Amino acid sequence: MIEIENVTVRFGGVVALNDVSAVFTTPVGGIIGPNGAGKTTLMNVVSGFLTSNSGRILVDGADILSVAPFRRAQRGLRRSFQREQIADDLSVRDNIQVQLDPLPGPASAKRAEVERMLAVTGLTDQAGRRGAELTGFERRLTDVARCLVGKPRLIMFDEPAGGLSVDETARLGELILGIHALTGAQTLVIDHDVELISRVCNEMLVLDFGRRIAFGPTADVLADHNVKAAYLGTEEVLA
Amino acid sequence: MNAALFRITPTGWAGLAFAAFAFIVLPSVAGSFWLSVLTSAACFAMAASGVGFMYARLGMVSLTQVGLMGIGGWVALRLNYAFAFPFEVNLVVASIVTMAFGWLLALPALRLRGLYLALVTLMAAGGLEILFATFKFPNGGDGFWGVKLGSLEPFRGPALATTPEAYLRYVVACVTLGFLFIEAHLRLAPGRAWAMIRRSEAAAMAAGVNVTLYKTWAFGIAGLLAGAAGCLLAGSLGLLDSGTFRSPESIMIFALAVVGGARSWLGPIIASVLYRVVPAFLASWGVNTNLAYMIFGAGLLHALITAPNGIAGQIHEAAGMAARKLGWRP
Lengths: 239, 330
Known about the structure:
Chain A has about 240 residues and is an alpha/beta fold.
């Protein structure tokens, strides 16, 4: 369970997040909103790359805001970035292994887990290829596989479908839907693809100008008048 | 056991073959002048490997490497005249002390990147240059600094290598171990962590990598190799001169590591050949050795314009193309 309590982030005079609160309890949650709404800022606060001016964030009851970013990752917090972050020099296998290196446990078990997640993401045949040789989708899948290893508790994807084809987005959606059953982790997804979000997310937070304008079950949120006005748009009926 | 750690790549075989050539053939055919030049070149290859590895794997520019060599040399000389330890003990202690200096240097530098990091390390090199020029290198005198005027005390080299030929072999073996030490790191968790840091520090942190630890680690390795190189250089010459460790030399060794190719074992070799062997050739032909600077400049322009991975990168590409034409696995 992720509890976001009254989180405020200011950049000088700009209020990027304004007293945002939400409690995500379902396997997959979504965060949507127009550009500049504060979605990535919220994700950066959760992952530790930004410090909030006020508020608390609890993951499974533990306040994580005082924990260093790399320690959050070691404690099960995973995230991907808008642009996939794959080391070009490393093989796909090593790009995944790097997440397990700081964690305790026998090397053989770590190698087995990497092979398992390579199979889950369909990258087994690409395991020995260098990051520089991969297609954009293969790089994204490598990023996803890295998030899956090491007993994750919370996985955050920041616009994972950006630049992907319809088929690739559908396959990514299937992977995201399977994460909870596979690892037990909760997932948070930011994306502009409303079809993907509505398919994979059980509940959704909508931000606009740093404020929460809606939160709740996906179907209810997407039907919300304020959400339509701020983000989805309203249908213009021509007489 | 990690099988990847011991897998020898075609490039690795080439490196081992070159090390065997340098170990067996070079000391047998070189005269006394060239033995001295090649030994010095091998020492600087070790130092260049440290600075090149930091640049290639982490994108960090350190302009203190020759200054750190001076620390290793100073400690080795001081230990040599103060105690009766075997050379190997002095080598290990000098390397570790220099590694500690590398860590100290890392502390302020870790918050900086790019040009600012380069400037801080250059200032450290400048500080070391002043210290070496002021206090000189120990030569058997009394007191902490151990400097005296007049005849010098004899320097104890390694018991395994009492002739110049044997000492070159000794240095080649040490340099090979240094290169293998870097390669082992690159194939294990530190190498993966450094690759992620080079990609993006945020991505590295998101992967659970302790960025501060691994950057400090890299500075430590560069310091360790520089310290060992300084000690080996002291062992070769029996004395050291502060003029060898001026801050422009650190800039030069970094630039030549880039020209040679920072990503490969061959790069530091090329760098050290340009730094030590080319001027020696010019001197032996009676040509002004300052001509070497023009050659360095041309090499640097060549690397910047056509060879982002340095001369070594071009050689590897050419070898790969030749292998493919011959139907071998690239």
